[in-house]
Amino acid sequence: MHHQRPDHCPPRSHCLPIVLSVFLSFAALATSVHAQQLPPLVFVQRQIPADGNSAWPAAALPGVGAHSRLRPAAPGKLRVRNSDGSLRPLVDGAASGSPLIDVSAPSVSWDGTRIVFAGLPAGNWNSTPLGNPGGWRLYLINADGSGLRALTVSDIHADYSQFGSGAVPWAYDDYDPAFLPDGRVVFASTRWPAFAQFADARTSNLWVVNSDGNGLHRITSERNGADRPLVDPVSGRIVFFRWWRNQRLAYDSLADEPVAASQPQLGWISRQGLSTQAVPAARNSWQIVGINPDGAELALFGGKPDSDSDGFGYGGGFAGNGVLYTNYFPALDLASAAGFGGIRVLGRGATQWTAYAGVVRRDANLRLAGTPEAAQLYQGPYATDAEVLADGRVVFARAADLDQDYGLWVATPGGTAQLLLDEAGTAELRPRVLAARSVPPVIPDIYRDAPASAPYPQFLPPPAGTAPRDGTFVFDARNVYANAAVDVDIPSAPAVGSAASIRFYADHQRQAPGTFPSLDWPLFLGEQAISAAGKVSANAPAFLPLFEQLRSSAAAGYAVPRTGWPRGNSVAHVAGMNHDRAGVVAQCTGCHAGHTLIPVPSESNAPWSNLAPGAQVTVSSARAGAGGDGLIDRKVFLGPVRAYWTSAPGQVSGQWAELEFPVPVIVRRVRLYNPRPGDEADSSVQVTSTRVTLRDGAGNVVDTRTSGSVLLFGTDVNFVDVGARRVRVEITGVTGTFDGSAAAGLAEIEVIAKGDGIRMTPQDRLFRDNFQL
């Protein structure tokens, strides 16, 4: 399910999913909460490791990110808090004869009868930050404590010698399990051999296994990480948290620049339109994404995709209505620190999060005195691991300070939190309701072919005439120029006509024995032409991390087109990587961060989108410090009113705005938005009539239409699919003031159109090839 602003919608605060939450106030009570009985809760109680922050002495929150998700925190206990407040053990890692010394991440079956969790048997395990013990496996136990048994075992015997001596044998860990609605278990694992592109961390991926231990198979092909899977109670899809990182980014030049000409084994600085230095590698965060249980239809779940911080999420819990209470940690890579964060609340789609508890943002004013900026340590308390009860209360873990001694708290919907359980010197974490709950929709597996268990061979693509080892899927981009609706807070697509082709790259681990940007250089798979309307379709190898890059025509320098709000602050290069499984037709629209949040239109509707953000804007006049770019930023309710276009003060008659496209387009509709009233400019501007004129590339008028009053939520001026290059909107009637002066203006202009290849003359192509935003 995707979120998109409807054509006519009340103010923004009513368009987004309504989240009834407040930033919690803590009432520290030393006793259990008796006002209303709680359901039974299963949770883990673990020791508190040291070295929780690479830049400052502090304790660690076990189970978080590459830094501490696998660090032993023994002895660990799996415990139940009964409804009457009493406690009972299920697994006690400190008990003599216990088969396990540590536990993590319990998940309860939907009928409430079983618990699956990660367990660590006795052994001499690596307990350092970023370590990989190689002993975590999944276990099942009945709710009454009986029937403990292993669900996953040490069963991979592949030859990993291609990765160097440091990777043989490949010790892997299984962790973060969750019950699927059909009874199977999805979990994270480092079974697939690869190193993330930061800190030499092991890559994690998602796997699915039957409850009897059979049917084990991988469903994701992440380059960096896939952790903390959850089940969306509304859709039944798996929501997980992926590490967004790509060390090789877009580069206009195709030049090969080796690290050292005399030592080719050291790899590359730039090659094949990619560079380790061309663009700052800012993306190093965790995103919230969704996938079907068979591994198909990877897409963003929510958050702001163009912001590492506002798009961040890592684990948490769902309310029954599908609202996500997710963890936030200021050290966004989760490799340099573990913990010191809080809980955010957000709905699906490009929505803004709401603060719930703990540290939920980076705020220099709240940084702990004496700590370096690199530590990203802020004033507590800290919160994590929300479990939303059926009555709206939330159980979560809270710690007061850098010792990260977490206890369990319960909060009412009104925002008051009370202590539930806190035993000094241990961390009580990951609470889950131990009772039957409503079963989400079951999404049956459509695609069943699993990838091979061994690493992919060093070389790809395979010899001519042979298919990739694990099959192919269809990459079906229906319109790379498509934009989301107004006030859907994701970046805009590249300008229509700015892309001539798309390049495909594979970026899997082959021989590099760790995180080395210059080694295992991405493999160029091929290139496909893009139609005038933005359509492209290609076969791509399945079960591999891939990424794509748009290119302009050769006459335009074969450069990477720019995208953004609206003047090109980013590039048309999918840095976050993607993947799919064999047999899938992976459909998408747009080419920018967040494009998977746009509902995929039908084949006939796909070419039509708001192309205005890619146009050049000229206006008759403008107030000081404001031009016409606000007309095409796709913001009506999101931004300040001073981002709108208004004429120079006192100039009301004869005011116009014109949009010129780099190539011919076919215009179906022009939608105009009136400036919203009030706010910081005390605006009362009301456009009462307009004239919309379409012109071709030579300046000839091809059609003219008029409108009456322009509505705050948009007024349509319809055309009968007219070919044009310029769209001029003349304000023929207006009343009101802006900043106290009479003015004409508009909040936004949308041009619903598609690229027109038929009318593209040689002169049009020359214009396109020299077009600059």
From TrEMBL:
<keyword id="KW-0732">Signal</keyword>
<dbReference type="InterPro" id="IPR055826">
    <property type="entry name" value="DUF7402"/>
</dbReference>
<dbReference type="InterPro" id="IPR011042">
    <property type="entry name" value="6-blade_b-propeller_TolB-like"/>
</dbReference>
<dbReference type="Pfam" id="PF24135">
    <property type="entry name" value="DUF7402"/>
</dbReference>
<protein>
    <recommendedName>
        <fullName>DUF7402 domain-containing protein</fullName>
    </recommendedName>
</protein>
<dbReference type="InterPro" id="IPR008979">
    <property type="entry name" value="Galactose-bd-like_sf"/>
</dbReference>
<feature type="domain" description="DUF7402">
    <location>
        <begin position="610"/>
        <end position="751"/>
    </location>
</feature>
<feature type="signal peptide">
    <location>
        <begin position="1"/>
        <end position="35"/>
    </location>
</feature>
